TrEMBL record, chains A, B:
EC number: 1.3.1.43
Highest taxon listed in the record's lineage: Bacteria
Protein name: Prephenate dehydrogenase
Residues of the Prephenate/arogenate dehydrogenase domain: 4-289
Keyword Magnesium: no
Entry-linked PANTHER family: PREPHENATE DEHYDROGENASE (PTHR21363), PREPHENATE DEHYDROGENASE [NADP(+)] (PTHR21363:SF0)
Keywords for the protein's UniProt record, in alphabetical order: Oxidoreductase
A GO MF term: cyclohexadienyl dehydrogenase activity
Pfam families from the UniProt entry: PDH_C (PF20463), PDH_N (PF02153)
Amino acid sequence: MFFEKTAIIGVGLIGAAVALAMKKHGLAKKICGFGRNETNLKNARARGIIDDYALNLGDLAEGADLVIFAAPVRAFKPIAGEIAPYLKTGAIVSDVGSVKGALVYEMESAMPEGVAFVGAHPIAGNDKSGIDAADPGIFIGAKCVITPTSRTDKTACQTITSMWERFGCKVEELTPERHDEILSSISHLPHIAAYALVNAVHEINPNFIGYSGTGFMDTTRIAMSSPEIWRDICVLNRENILNHLNAYKRQLELITAYINGLDWTTLAEEFGKAGEARKKLRDERNNTENK
Amino acid sequence: MFFEKTAIIGVGLIGAAVALAMKKHGLAKKICGFGRNETNLKNARARGIIDDYALNLGDLAEGADLVIFAAPVRAFKPIAGEIAPYLKTGAIVSDVGSVKGALVYEMESAMPEGVAFVGAHPIAGNDKSGIDAADPGIFIGAKCVITPTSRTDKTACQTITSMWERFGCKVEELTPERHDEILSSISHLPHIAAYALVNAVHEINPNFIGYSGTGFMDTTRIAMSSPEIWRDICVLNRENILNHLNAYKRQLELITAYINGLDWTTLAEEFGKAGEARKKLRDERNNTENK
């Protein structure tokens, strides 16, 4: 696996980490970046994250044998339409987007004959953004979900799988629908829970937040994520998120009922159940040397 | 400020950190521990956290000039009743409990003539427990709330304030009632939010939790806290917690309504509002060199 020309669309935290991981593992000859902000692209080139950048999508796509979409998911469809005429036969197009579902089928349909699309999502990142925080180490030990469909080219799928394995990910195949259902529960719902928690404390009294300890800091860290990106994820994964918000509100209602009804035994059991599940997750991660 | 005999009731994460901080700053001649588990007390003595331990509360309290309650809050009242006859005139009794309110007045009333009670709560800790994780560094830069009442001895209050300042805390005085209202919002509510979030994901599908990234891990870290301690906090701060659970559920209902009604502009604004408030908190903490 070696790519003569790799195009990275969106050189932010994850796009830059992909570029750095490709260089680290010797998978790329030339990495070309694309983005809305030329200053950012110049910085990325100066730091050796990308080798060059393009200011129009035709130049970017021309001759590329690998194209990675690392832009906000709402931009995928229009960009796919623009690059399609320039893609060469045999090119592989992939992504790192947090939502799959319908988008995967739309991306497949946007590809010209002879170009494979393979959906991918490394479940990695942090609350930071931008190339300054980019680190190929975030992929080590992280799960990466590949979402092939009945139309996905098997060789291209294997190539993308191998690439993420080289980066240190544990790769797993899921349907686009199953991916979205899972991510809604363990990523999209927690983000909304964190946003709502900050807003609730602010509503109770804007001065109270200053008394926060590490518990509140940890619980609400992801509320610093981009509002636009998370709005777009809500747009694209709306049904799952609404279902899971209902499940969450049911759990909060249960706890409210126990406290209201002085049912302290059941309350402690509920807390204990959550604690056991969370400790099991911690122990699994510690065992794979991934905190 | 120097204490000939300090009694620490409850030698766990915080009790042990207090003992270590007192030794670090040369405030204590002899620290005597008390707890239900003699093996733990022996370990604490072997590690030099405490100098000795008592197996009955009379021996512990006799001759002590400082007594710190660091046991679970539900144990405070019965223990206060037991030690009262043994406390010497001029002794100061304080605590590190997460709930104040009525408990402060009850503790005051339990003290014999000439013994001062001063409520204190260092807002510090982590998801760990026990003496192995005890670290006096957790107090550095943390807030410590002192909750004097109209009956509190001013000199004793000043002594306790100075002690926590020596440990590195930013000390602030609040009424017991205000303390509980604030802590309900920025600590008790987030714990319940985290417990409920783990249980919601488990209810959705017990296998999904294994796909978690760092976002879910951070958001639910405090769900590993002791279920019994958090049940007791719900018992003692029930009214505030019920009010704040309602505020949180209202925020979740708002977000649900925006997603359900396709009101993406307002949704992004709500997310952005939370993000700004949380970033402000981060920046304040970074400025005081306390993450």
